[in-house]
Design goal:
Helix content is 43%, strand content 20%. The chain is an alpha/beta fold. Helix 1 packs across helix 4 and helix 2 runs parallel beside helix 3.
Length: 122
């Protein structure tokens, strides 16, 4: 089962996204900020990350940069209302504007995995 690290500081959004991803067949580990996300991934490495961008203690971009020091090709979706602040040059990264429906998030995650599978076939 594909393991998703979900990092979101808004409890209602996190709960909704977690339930949606689990119903779509993913195993989900939830963290409330970037530092907690790093700790969670060290304990149980994820196959992909879905993260908010602006969070207390450590933002999603900083967390992804640290995670990718160990796994450069870790796929990620950054969900944010501040897309202009996100580095869009990283491979295997999608940026989704807030607000996003749970079904759109699941669809974008599926597309990201499809794109990776297609790229790695060559």
């Amino acid at each position: 089962m594909t393991h998703i690290l979900l990092v979101e500081d808004e409890v209602l959004v996190a709960t909704l996204f977690q339930a949606t991803l689990e119903m779509a067949g993913y195993r989900v580990t939830l963290a409330t900020d970037g530092l907690e996300g790093l700790e969670a991934d060290a304990q149980d490495p994820a196959d992909a990350v879905v993260t908010d961008f602006r969070m207390p203690r450590m933002n999603g971009g900083e967390m992804l940069a640290r995670l990718r020091q160990r796994r450069a090709d870790l796929p990620a979706i950054i969900v944010t209302g501040y897309a202009g602040e996100v580095d869009l040059s990283a491979p295997y990264t999608a940026v989704v504007a807030k607000p996003v429906s749970p079904s759109e998030l699941t669809r974008r995650l599926s597309l990201l995995f499809e794109d990776i599978a297609t790229t790695k076939d060559f």
